[in-house]
Amino acid sequence: MMKLYGVIGDPIAHSMSPAMHNDAFSRLGIPAYYHPFHVKPNDLKKAVEGMKAIGVEGFNVTIPHKTAIIPLLDELDPLAEAIGAVNTVVRKNDRWIGYNTDGDGFVRGLKETLGRDLHLDHILIIGAGGAARAIYYTLASEHVRLIDIANRTMEKAARLAEQCPFETKTNVLSISEAEQRMGNYSIVIQTTSIGMSPKTDEMPLSLSLLKKGTFVSDIIYNPLETKFLAEAKKQGAITQNGIKMFVYQGVSAFEKWTGVSPDANRMEKIVLEQLGGYHVNR
Ligand code: ATR
Fold first, then answer.
1. What range(s) does the Quinate/shikimate 5-dehydrogenase/glutamyl-tRNA reductase domain occupy (predicted)?
2. Which of 134, 189, 208, 263 has the smallest set of CB atoms within 10 Å of its CB?
3. Ligand 1: does its nearest atom lie under 6 Å from the Cβ of 67?
4. Helix or strand run (H / E) with residue 169
């Protein structure tokens, strides 16, 4: 029988996940279908119960439900618990188990591009919101030793560092301190919404002291190249946009549901087609 998967969110119409997962199911000959479900916050509980009742096998969770869903699940993966957000739910023995594959997706994409592990890197994370939390805790859980955080509101970054359940060394920095220390980092990760369409001429901080050859990543994929990435490239950095994070959070979710690894390159192609962006990014 056809297995049913999906994504719940509000709004959900522009989700790229259905095209990505349905293509992978059909390529791998897995009889399954992935559907976008528009679920309003007030209906979240009913939706989670209803999906169990009708036999949904697993689903993704997106804005605004990633934290609100936690008390509605039967079990929580420890990393998702630390991050405080769930983007992937798996059905196991009729129980809903919540995971967070956002941070894992980012780190997998990063490792794939760099072709090495990250133990010896000195990383700067810009921002201290939900995305920063997922990436920071996942990096720390993988034993990256030096991860600094810079944020407009320093208290938020300090809280993130204090609450990290994994051992790592972190300096909490103001934006101007991070600008001054920019030359110390081998990897810089931009996690704020600054530079996202339509405000594409904004940048979270100056990169004037960036070292040539630094790896600079922006989790934004709309536009495919933010002003921040364009500036980093001008300074001789190796750059990466947010497409790989999106693709690999999907790869990890797919693996958790099916036990099979989908073709990440193919998924990336589907996502770029959805964005209509082949011409923008090389
Ligand atoms: P998400 O869950 O997508 O990460 P979030 O939790 O709202 O979003 O976090 C947004 C991040 O972008 C925060 O680090 C925020 O900085 P503050 O903690 O100081 O609010 C940062 N951010 C958003 N807009 C900003 C702006 N105009 N200037 C500086 N930082 C900004």
1. 117-193
2. 208
3. no
4. none
